[in-house]
């Protein structure tokens, strides 16, 4: 059961770093690697995922006593898929460029284990307010990683961040960074960096 | 000829794991041992092939005629989830040894994004029925290939002196990056 000694602020903050879904739990890696070839794509993907996470956490937390235990996973997935369809249609209608760039990775939010994981581990057991805070925290942590990863890859791969050119003509873009290998390598270094920071913090 | 191209494209050139980043969770989670990697690969290939056929039928015989393509994602994920359950029950009844090998990996496959990704890509590319099935087999073979290679490398890695902060997930990503780099050599081999 939920530990109510945990403060509400803590429910939000823990998702940002200590229990960061990507760097610590290694959840939801597919979109993290696939769409971070530029900062703007990462940001869009992060926002879409957070929207789906927040909405489905809200609904599932409200319905948590009504959903029978045996079919809960199927129930969660249908709720998640509904919000993903909303997000997908919204992007296609208002931001067609981003929708094209993200392609099938928007519908793939359905099977993002980060979202299902939060429902199973948190929203289905906790009251509404806490579930919403938890979803926002985890979502913000996810956006953070996507934007950092997207910025690094865009900077090294195209010499710009958010389409603003930062590195001048002297810089020969590392094409590999915006291709698949760059995603794996950058994430590997980010995870190592976060381990290093955690160790420094533990020592301090 | 076209079918062979689709197979090679799905298995090697556009490898699901290394160039589409689909199925990363099992790729990282189940690649510690060679034997379990082989079983997982077989289970995924099996489900992918059936899923490719079933989702094609659902899309073209139900969603399109009734003009409810908007329900695509909901329908696909439900079909895949129940399919995995069915396959699990079927294997348990028919072949006990096969169930013992694949058993624990089957439920995990529901949330394997490679399966849903396969269904979505096949729809997006407007493949016919046979093409979709071949695409499913090819994607499964590619997944197995990547998983087995990764497991082989990670078994060797156990003996290697990895820098402290890279141990675990970090070095796994770096190895995956090197594999992806190697697979990029196949890019341009063919375009399907």
What report would you give on this structure?
- The complex is a heterodimer of chains A (204) and B (192).
- Chain A has 204 residues and is an all-alpha fold.
- Chain A has one domain (10-203).
- Chain A has helices at residues 8-13, 29-34, 39-62, 72-94, 96-102, 113-123, 128-158, 175-178, 180-203, and strands at residues 160-161, 164-165.
- In chain A, strands 1-2 form a two-stranded antiparallel sheet.
- In chain A, β1 (160-161) and β2 form a beta hairpin.
- In chain A, α3 (39-62) packs parallel to α6, α4 crosses α5 (96-102) and α4 packs across α6.
- Chain A is globular, with a radius of gyration of 18 Å.
- The model of chain A has no long low-confidence stretch (mean pLDDT 89).
- Chain B is mostly helical.
- Chain B has one domain (2-186).
- The model of chain B has no long low-confidence stretch (mean pLDDT 87).
- At the A-B interface, α2, α4 and α9 of A face α2, α4, α7 and α9 of B.
Mean pLDDT of chain A: 89
Percent helix among the residues of chain A? 55-70%
Can you give the helix content of chain B as a percent range? Answer: over 70%
* Overall number of structural domains of chain A: 1
What is the fold's blueprint, element by element?
The complex is a heterodimer of chains A (204) and B (192).
Chain A: H1 8-13, H2 29-34, H3 39-62, H4 72-94, H5 96-102, H6 113-123, H7 128-158, E1 160-161, E2 164-165, H8 175-178, H9 180-203
Antiparallel strand pairs in A: 1-2
Helix pairs in contact in A: 3-4, 3-6, 3-7, 4-5, 4-6
Chain B: H1 2-13, H2 24-29, H3 34-63, H4 72-94, H5 96-102, H6 106-109, H7 113-124, H8 129-157, H9 169-183
Short description:
The complex is a heterodimer of chains A (204) and B (192). Chain A is built from 9 helices and 2 strands; from the N terminus they run αααααααββαα.
């Amino acid at each position: 059961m939920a530990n109510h000694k945990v403060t509400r602020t803590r429910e939000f903050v823990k998702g940002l770093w200590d229990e960061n879904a990507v760097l610590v739990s290694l959840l939801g890696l597919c979109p993290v690697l696939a769409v971070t070839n530029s900062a703007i794509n990462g940001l869009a993907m992060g926002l879409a995922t957070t929207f789906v996470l927040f909405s489905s956490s809200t609904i599932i937390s409200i319905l948590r006593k009504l959903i029978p235990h045996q079919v809960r996973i199927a129930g969660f997935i249908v709720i998640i898929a509904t919000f993903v369809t909303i997000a997908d249609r919204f992007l296609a209608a208002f931001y067609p460029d981003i929708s094209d760039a993200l392609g099938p990775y928007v519908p793939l939010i359905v099977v993002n284990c980060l979202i299902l994981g939060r429902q199973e581990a948190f929203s289905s057991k906790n009251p509404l307010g806490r579930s919403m805070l938890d979803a926002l925290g985890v979502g913000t942590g996810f956006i953070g990683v996507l934007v950092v990863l997207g910025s690094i890859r865009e900077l090294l791969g195209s010499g710009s961040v958010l389409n603003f050119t930062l590195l001048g003509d002297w810089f020969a873009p590392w094409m590999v960074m915006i291709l698949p290998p760059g995603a794996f390598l950058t994430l590997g270094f980010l995870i190592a960096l976060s381990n290093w920071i955690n160790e420094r913090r533990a020592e301090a | 000829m076209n079918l062979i191209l689709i197979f090679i494209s799905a298995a090697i050139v556009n490898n699901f794991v290394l160039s589409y980043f689909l199925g990363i969770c099992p790729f990282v989670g189940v690649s510690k041992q060679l034997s379990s990697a082989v079983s997982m690969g077989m289970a995924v290939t099996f489900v992918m092939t059936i899923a490719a056929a079933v989702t094609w039928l659902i899309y073209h015989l139900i969603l399109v005629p009734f003009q409810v393509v908007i329900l695509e994602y909901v329908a696909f994920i439900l079909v895949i989830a129940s399919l995995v359950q069915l396959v699990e029950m079927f294997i348990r009844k028919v072949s006990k040894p096969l169930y013992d090998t694949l058993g624990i990996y089957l439920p995990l496959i529901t949330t394997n994004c490679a399966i849903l990704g396969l269904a979505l890509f096949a729809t997006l590319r407007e493949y016919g029925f046979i093409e979709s099935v071949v695409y499913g087999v090819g994607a499964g073979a590619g997944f197995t290939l990547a998983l087995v290679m990764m497991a082989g490398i990670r078994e060797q890695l156990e003996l290697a002196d990895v820098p402290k902060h890279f141990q675990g997930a970090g070095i796994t990503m770096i190895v995956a990056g090197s594999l992806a780099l190697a697979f990029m050599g196949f890019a341009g081999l063919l375009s399907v």
